Predict the structure of DNA replication and repair protein RecF.
Amino acid sequence: MLRRRAFVGPGMRLLELQVRHLRSFGETRVELAPGINVFHGPNGAGKTTLLEAVFLLSHGRSFRSGAREALLQRGAEGFTVFAEWEAADGWRHRLGLGREKSRWEARLDGELVSLGTLVRHCAVICFEPGSHALIAGGAEERRRYLDWGVFHVEQDFLAPWRRYQRALKQRNALLRAGTGAPAEYLPWESELADCAEAIDAARRRYLDLLRPELVAAMQGLLPELGEVELRYRSGWPDGVPLAGHLAAQRGRDQARGHTGAGSHRADWELGFAAAPQREHLSRGQEKLTALGCLLAQAALYARLRGEWPVICLDDLASELDGPHQQAVVDRLVAAGAQVLVTGTELPPALAPLAARVFHVEQGRVAGLL
């Protein structure tokens, strides 16, 4: 069930980050401040890689596109990311994630753990140049956003999600083979339906909690677009049991070679009074809408868990104009969140603030302030 805490304290904090053989970095170690941390340097210096390393610990994947092999420094056989992490209540953990060839290895306080256990212990939300895909891209990005939020507030969510993925894989294999008798499909379709019901209910509960945070965020960033509407689709027709729908669609799914309905087809979207469909938004408005979604998710996490997640802002100055930079920075500073920012120079909104500044160039990091 959803966990609620009335008190919201300062955010969780990354005390130290160590990176080995990740992209352009051979080996580097960075001690971070509890508030604003700025990484500046020329394009291609490796600034984004540092945010990517933190994101990997929280999501088990990169926010950048491309093959996983691209994460490796040239000539290296594997990479590792280590961090010392402090929760708002003062509890500290040592986190580690490594990949060698096709194998991931996660560690928590020196012990081997599952990737799910690792990412549950840290929360990172990142706004970067590709974040507009949350609004303009395909449904997969929006499901990832939604499921990450549910995962961090519902302890029981991961089990049905994993069972669903296994059942989906098995049914798709039967569809591609094209030889399975109806009786072979029934167990997997029953499993898909049972798990989908749990997944759908958890997603709906989370969106109900997220809605007021989204409204507040959009009113702050895009007040000119008016009232906000959140729409959700489960991935199969409303009011129709999924198991029966899968059986009815089996022939069509065999022709396509994959399952066309279920939780893996769910989607959600925002509409505004002045822009009912996402196609009505400009590129700049897409960015601000995506940013609002991410800030809303961070605020809900803080409300439910009692502490803010770490916030990463990649290339802030080029993604947002001055007033919006200022609004975001003011909000995060007031919340007490730890913030990691990159840019080719110090963003103007951060100039008057006490921030720890690092210079990054050719895979090396040097503290300046």
Residues 167 and 191 are 6 Å apart (CA to CA).
